[in-house]
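As practice, study what follows.
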Amino acid sequence: MILYLGRRLVGVVGILLAICAITFVIFYLLPNDPAAAACGKTCSAERLAEVKTAMGLDKPVWEQFGTYLTGIFAGRDYGSGPSAVRCEFPCLGYSYEYSMPVWDLLSDRLPVSVSLALGAAVLWLALGLGVGVVSALRKGSMTDRSLTILSVATASLPVYFTSIMLIWGVVRTTGLLPYPTYARFTDDPLDWASNLLLPWIALALLYAATYARQSRNSMIETMAEPYIRTARAKGMPSATVTVKHGLRSGMTPILTIFGIDLGGLLAGAVITESIFGLPGVGRLFYDALTRSDQPVILGVTLLAAFFIVAANLLVDLLYAYVDPRVRY
């Protein structure tokens, strides 16, 4: 298991270095004037010259990349002398629109996006796996057909439509819940959950349909395996056969898509956060696009890549737990 983990960690380091190199090319080498892109729309000529010097664009490319890479893993200074600005680890850039390091902006918004992603993930896993298992165990029945139709219908609804309908029906019409605003979990867990419940449901309905279809197909294939028939012939309880042998073996494809979905969502759900007015990373990314704030766009890109790689590493470890054969 240790060797398995070591191989995966070496692969993660290589992937992160490759991502850093690719983002450097995209944001530093491809634009005609990277300083102008970083400085923003309303940037004077004097300010542009300062930004160009602070970013080190007058240095050779290899030295620029070395500074860029060092900043991500050890921090860096923007500029020199008394006017230099320190960007601590992890330095994902410096926003000249906000006049502060990008990581400071992201770390302030990150708890909102993490709360949104993790809560929605719990809901869509519970709902998707529950529907998928029931459909698989009752294959061909009216229950199976009804749940399949419901899953397809739910998956076809855009998240912005579901979000608007939830606001209209639950907040404005019935008043069962307040309009979502973010409250810190440490201040009031109940208020935190009640304000995020509608965004959780909106995202869960979108993702649960995919997990329901995938888990149904996996369970149907797994429950037809010879070792399932053997377990039943030994007189094992139906619940044990279904959960311990069937569901555990059928979890591999579910874990694959879960790692990708959760990793991408941790870096911000742009549409959901914008509709519900949540100050998360997705909303920050949208504002950066409208302002042409390239350092923030770069920072969110790096953060999203890190979360996806980390989520896939977690999935690899779960593979080894679910199926011990993977370790070897």
In short: The chain has two domains: 2-91, 104-327.
